[in-house]
Each structure stands twice: as structure tokens, then as C-alpha cells.
């Protein structure tokens, strides 16, 4: 199915429930996620589900998080 992905939903957690944390705020292995995205040849968007308080917070954190994931993918 890897070649058929058109979008992905990324969130982090601390191992209990659906926490909707931004990536890198919990315990998910984001190096492993970045490696999987590379291996799948994924080029689509990242969709973040989060509970950040303002739109400005969401935009700032989403930009920083996407840049960090892309940086990890280029290693």
C-alpha cells in the first residue's frame, strides 16, 4: 500500500490513548517514521491533528515539525 498513500495523519502520544500531541512531544520513534516515509517514497502532505490553543501556534509548530521530519528524511 505504500505507493498508494496520498496523505498521512501524524500525531504523537505517550502510549495511552489518542493524545493528539504534535510529533516529538511524546514517545513515537520519529526516526523510524521518517525512514518508513522514505522507503515508501511518500511525497504527499503531512496532516497534524492537534489540540494547540491558537491557529498561530498550529502554523508555527506544524512548520517546525515538518522541517524537522524532512531533515530526518535526508540523512
Care to describe what's here?
This protein has two helices and two strands. The protein has helices spanning 30-40, 55-73; strands at 8-10, 46-48. A two-stranded parallel ribbon has the order 1-2. Helix 1 (30-40) crosses helix 2.
Question: How would you sum up this structure in a few lines?
Answer:
With 75 residues, the chain is mainly α. The chain has helices spanning 30-40, 55-73, and strands spanning 8-10, 46-48.
Spell out the helices and strands N to C.
EHEH
The largest pleated sheet is described as: 2 strands, parallel
Q: What is the averaged pLDDT score?
A: 90
Query: How do the strands of the widest beta sheet line up side by side?
Result: 1-2
Tell me the helix content: 40-55%
Q: State the end-to-end CA separation.
A: 24 Å
Strand content: 5-15%
Oligomer: single chain
Task: Give the strand tally.
Answer: 2
* Large-scale geometry: globular
Task: Work out the radius of gyration.
Answer: 12 Å
Low-confidence stretches: none
The total count of helices amounts to 2
Content-based structural category: mainly alpha
List keywords for this structure.
single chain, 75 residues, mainly alpha, two-stranded parallel ribbon, 2 helices, 2 strands, 40% helix
SSE arrangement:
Blueprint: E1 8-10, H1 30-40, E2 46-48, H2 55-73
Parallel strand pairs: 1-2
Helix pairs in contact: 1-2
Amino acid at each position: 500500500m505504500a505507493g498508494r498513500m496520498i496523505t498521512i495523519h501524524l500525531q504523537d502520544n505517550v502510549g495511552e490513548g489518542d493524545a493528539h500531541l504534535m510529533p516529538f512531544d511524546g514517545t513515537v520513534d520519529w526516526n523510524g517514521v521518517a525512514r518508513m516515509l522514505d522507503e515508501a517514497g511518500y511525497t504527499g502532505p503531512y496532516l497534524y491533528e492537534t489540540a494547540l490553543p491558537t491557529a498561530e501556534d498550529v502554523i508555527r509548530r506544524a512548520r517546525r515539525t515538518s522541517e524537522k521530519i524532512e531533515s530526518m528524511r535526508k540523512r
